[in-house]
Amino acid sequence: MTGKVVVDAMGSDRAPHPEIDGALAATRDFGVRVILVGQREVVEPELRRCRWRKDGDKGVELVEAAEVIRMDEAVASAVRRKRRSSMRVGARLVAEGQADGFISAGNTGAAMATAMMVIGMLPGVDRPALAALMPTKSGRPTILLDVGANSECKPHHMAQFAIMGDAYSRSVLGTPRPTVGMMSIGEEEGKGNDLTKEAFPLLRELQSLNFVGNVEGRDVFTGEVDVIVTDGFTGNVILKLSEGLQEAVVTMIKRELSASVITKTGAVLARPAFQNLKKRLDYAEFGGAPLLGVRSIVVVCHGSSNARAIRNAVRNVKEFSEHGALARIERGIADTNARELASLRAVAEVSPAR
């Protein structure tokens, strides 16, 4: 471990302000060091306004990256063509062992592609998974993965997602023995499509997991399951639906509370409760979505991230690294692949020779 985290200073919609403020807050609150990567002529003047004088001051370093991958650029061509982009330079620092993880609030597809290409995949991992922390009524977030990295999956991918989600829940959220469920249209083992039916026995056989079986959409927000695995298409639909529903409910509550003098008075009295609820639903409390399965932790933040989101993303990288989550994932993947290989050999042995 290096105790350093790389932050793409050019990623967010209001870059580099949230990245700088978040980095400074993280170094102050968590005792980590942050490497900001971006165009020097843009980032350095803003750092100096925060009384930063040189590399290492206030726990922050600045590394030059001449290019930026914009939100509207085609991912494949931009990642290949812009070798001096803040994403490529930042990911390279992590790949070279100069930092423990990478954070970007930029183009999500570009961040994932860069991480896979530059940092590389963990041994045995076929597909990375993008995880989202969903707020629940229990007060503890549920990890939902994959939420968009893989629109089509195979059964053994689901098993790998479960291992990665379990490791993240243990290391970052501090859950001693996370419960793991698989998204389906019914709790019974036989319910679901071909993917969930074939993945179910694989998950059940993983002795390192506390697999509780199938879960349904209504279970996402109960907090009764710590990790929920699904394919990236379904996961992304759930995530976007949740974001839209949250916005709609908040809007309706505001409208009703401003409908009369009585409701306005009640709103004033209930303001502390509403503020607490807003904090629990705020994505900034979770930092961003971790991309699991690459050789180092990568956190993809929302483009509209504020300083608190960047700060908390740095905290997530720190906790993930300190608790050895990568080693746990690697051991679990190796065990899964060994079981799958043994199963294929057993089938081959009993199959009639041609």
CATH superfamily name of the domain at 4-119?
Answer: Isopropylmalate Dehydrogenase
Shape from CA axes?
globular
Number of strands: 11
Broad structural category? alpha/beta
Radius of gyration: 22 Å
- The appropriate CATH architecture of the domain at 4-119 is 3-Layer(aba) Sandwich
Number of helices: 12
β-strand amount: 5-15%
Summarize the structure.
By secondary structure, this protein is an alpha/beta fold.
Descriptive account of the structure:
The chain starts with a strand and ends with a helix. Among the domains are: 116 residues, Isopropylmalate Dehydrogenase (3-Layer(aba) Sandwich), CATH 3.40.718.10; 84 residues. Helices cover 48% and strands 15% of the residues. The chain has 12 helices and 11 strands. By secondary structure, it is of the alpha/beta class.
Topology of helices and strands:
Elements: E1 4-8, H1 17-30, E2 33-38, H2 40-49, E3 60-64, H3 75-81, H4 86-95, E4 101-104, H5 108-119, E5 129-134, E6 142-145, H6 155-171, E7 179-183, H7 194-205, E8 210-215, E9 227-229, H8 232-257, H9 261-269, H10 271-281, E10 289-292, E11 297-300, H11 307-322, H12 325-350
Parallel strand pairs: 1-2, 1-4, 2-3, 4-11, 6-9, 7-8, 7-9
Antiparallel strand pairs: 5-6, 5-10, 10-11
Helix pairs in contact: 1-11, 3-5, 4-5, 6-7, 6-12
